Amino acid sequence: MLKAVIKEAKLKLVVEAVLSMVEEAKFTFSDKGLEIKSVDPANVAMVKVLADASAFEFFKSTNGAIGVDLKRLQEALSSAEKDEPVTLQMNEESQKLAVSMGRIQYELSLIDTSAIRAEPKIPELSLPIMVELSGVELKKSMKACSKVSDHVKIGMTNEIFVIAGKGDIDKVELKMLTTEMQAVRIGECSSLFSLDYMEDIAKVAGKMEKVRLEVGQDYPMRVQFMTEGILVEYLLAPRIEQD
Amino acid sequence: MLKAVIKEAKLKLVVEAVLSMVEEAKFTFSDKGLEIKSVDPANVAMVKVLADASAFEFFKSTNGAIGVDLKRLQEALSSAEKDEPVTLQMNEESQKLAVSMGRIQYELSLIDTSAIRAEPKIPELSLPIMVELSGVELKKSMKACSKVSDHVKIGMTNEIFVIAGKGDIDKVELKMLTTEMQAVRIGECSSLFSLDYMEDIAKVAGKMEKVRLEVGQDYPMRVQFMTEGILVEYLLAPRIEQD
Amino acid sequence: MLKAVIKEAKLKLVVEAVLSMVEEAKFTFSDKGLEIKSVDPANVAMVKVLADASAFEFFKSTNGAIGVDLKRLQEALSSAEKDEPVTLQMNEESQKLAVSMGRIQYELSLIDTSAIRAEPKIPELSLPIMVELSGVELKKSMKACSKVSDHVKIGMTNEIFVIAGKGDIDKVELKMLTTEMQAVRIGECSSLFSLDYMEDIAKVAGKMEKVRLEVGQDYPMRVQFMTEGILVEYLLAPRIEQD
To answer: In this complex, do A148 and C104 lie within 8 Å of one another by their Cβ atoms?
Structure first.
């Protein structure tokens, strides 16, 4: 049994956060809320989204899981305005998900959860450095790096946080004094990441006031942000440095 | 003899209403105003546009008809602002249509009216149900249906007006209580229509405050709207239901 | 030695003015400012840009020249807001140009100036007619002409300034009484120009309040505008009239 009402902008965030990695996902519901965990087809990144029951205008669910085609859910959401409440309701008989906004109701067929790739076990990594910056800043720096390269180095040296893209011809660098940043765990390390993935993540994180990055030495990075009862977390594997 | 002045937005509506069905049309002028009647190349839809002399800032014409390439007239209009008066004037000598806005004047060659497909005789159908909804609502529901299907069922049952798209996988439905609607003729019937056509029509109708739909049982639908002296009417043939 | 600070919008104008003609250009610096002169690959148009030292927020330079890939500089500028100061600094050691805005710094590789096509000598033509119109008006009329033709006739007759496009089918004309214009040198002549070039020029000039056109009889046209210490000048060869 599931009946939940949530503002369009929030559900869209949930959908787009996962859609940046996979097209189909298992939505696991309990009385605590909604949980989604996915790993991208190339095994480079994992995403975890937790939408607490408090993130919903109304939330009532028993334990259960449904398989969702994220593109089709995203398309259905395009019929709603940003602040419009969207109702999700499982039709137990037809095994379809009703998605309604105003006078429009979609009835989406579900995917058998056994046909969806198993949820990853997301490791609890301990990462030496941590910074928080705005989503806008993250997005802007990824866009700048993508002008010159297809990978980006993220790390800290001499208490300066550095995002750097280095192409064959040009180079771009964003430096932030850790003393200017909101929350910081200082260290000396850096890792290289694929800009394809980082741009996808930054696109989702772009509207967040605060995005937390945790980085190690040639090690996966954790990207995390939270908004009104919704937690989004990415774990992104590093690229091997070749230069 | 023709000299007419009309605001860009109005002439654009006239042009786009017809352009949604055909690329070339016969514009028939009289002292009463402008009349255009066309049928689309697949014989699925007819459109009639009447622009009363009162829709114009200035209107003076003898009886006559000209053949217009609608795309080229639309392009000429793109030089004018929404509220800018556009002057249409026939040059009897050169048999060209001067279209002027501000300091810019286009001189458009006309098409021999005998080379344009004959105007359809639009039948006077008596249709059992009628509703009026806003253009925005019509456009939004056609867009939603197009996400799941390529045809849309429009009709009434138990005094509820229903627009429904049903694809192989998903379904979408918009329901409106007839008691909530502006003008209503109640009945029990529905017909299926091509979304290609309905989306084109909804695009033109999208800005109208009030659009009238008249529907029968597996029968053509009439879509009609009016604004400041301009009447637009579509007659759209049904599709044969296959499920 | 070069260190210069300039608002993004101004540097963007400089870059786009030249980029409308060539992709690589020689930037010549002196204590007076920046000078760029280029001729397009087809030898149809020349562009000269002078950015006076006063156009910069800060300007300090010795005599020297660098070869710039304009597309890459333009891309770097997209990281800055319109009013954001952008710093240009030559790194003498690495022979790279540092372009910084906020916390982001690009390091652009330069092109050997000997690999860039030699700067043209721009002739001092004496042109019989001159008018000044707004950039918006110029852009709008070029767009209108491009709907019907691929060339445009610009000139004056009976003290009326005329921009005219004449296609195989349609015609468009913009007429301005010279008595209504800001600055005027009256004459009787006209020349034909390629709309490809004129649209590129009009795009750059589109935001200017005042654009000066100087025209002769089947002779090159000079297009000139100035804004806050930046002078842009085009010299465009005429097309041979064929009708």
So the answer is: no
Closest residue in B to A72 (Cα–Cα): B147
Is A108 within 8 Å of chain B by CB?
yes
Instruction: Report yes or no: B72 at the C interface, CB cutoff 8 Å.
Output: yes
Could you say which of 1.10.10.60, 2.40.110.10, 3.70.10.10, 2.60.120.380 is the CATH number of the domain covering C2-114? 3.70.10.10
The upper half-sphere exposure of residue B118, i.e. CA atoms within 13 Å in the direction of its Cβ, equals 3
Residues 181-210 of A with CB under 8 A from C: none
pLDDT under 50: residue ranges of chain C: none
Domain ranges of chain C: 2-114, 129-236
Q: What is the pLDDT of residues B146-176, one digit of tens each?
A: 999 999 999 999 999 999 999 999 999 999 9
Chain B positions touching C171 (Cβ under 8 A) are 96, 106-107
- Answer yes or no: do A109 and B169 touch at CB < 8 A: yes
Model pLDDT, residue A92: 86
Cβ contact (<8 Å) for B147 and A75? Answer: yes
Q: What is the ipTM score, two decimals?
A: 0.89
Between CA A79 and CA B67 the distance in angstroms is 40
Contact list in C for residue B78 (CB cut-off 8 A) is 143, 147
Please compute the mean of the pLDDT values over residues B6-17 and round it to a whole number: 98
Positive or negative, the CA dihedral B123, B129, B131, B135 is negative
Q: Which residue of A has its CA nearest to B143?
A: A79
**Alpha-carbon span A108 to C146, nearest angstrom:** 47
Q: Which CATH number among 3.70.10.10, 1.10.3720.10, 3.40.190.10, 1.10.10.60 corresponds to the domain A2-115? A: 3.70.10.10
The 3-state secondary structure of chain C reads CEEEEEEHHHHHHHHHHHHCCCCEEEEEEECCEEEEEEECCCCCEEEEEEEEHHHCCEEEECCEEEEEEHHHHHHHHCCCCCCCEEEEEEECCCCEEEEEECCEEEEEECECHHHCCCCCCCCCCCCCEEEEECHHHHHHHHHHHHHHCCEEEEEEECCEEEEEEECCCCEEEEEEEHHHCCCEECCCEEEEEEHHHHHHHHHHHCCCCCEEEEECCCCCEEEEEEECCEEEEEEECCECCCC
**Are C105 and A172 in contact (CB < 8 Å)?**
yes
| Closest to B152 measured CA to CA, from B213, B73, B64 | B213
B174 touches chain A (CB under 8 A): yes
Q: Is the dihedral of CA A74, A78, A82, A87 positive or negative?
A: negative
Across the interface, whether the CB atoms of C104 and A171 are under 8 A apart is answered no
Confidence of residue B242 (pLDDT cuts 50, 70, 90): low
Q: Note the pTM of the prediction, 2 decimals.
A: 0.91
pLDDT band at A71 (very low <50, low <70, confident <90, very high): very high
CATH classification number, C129-236, choose in 3.40.50.11320, 3.10.129.10, 1.10.10.10, 3.70.10.10: 3.70.10.10
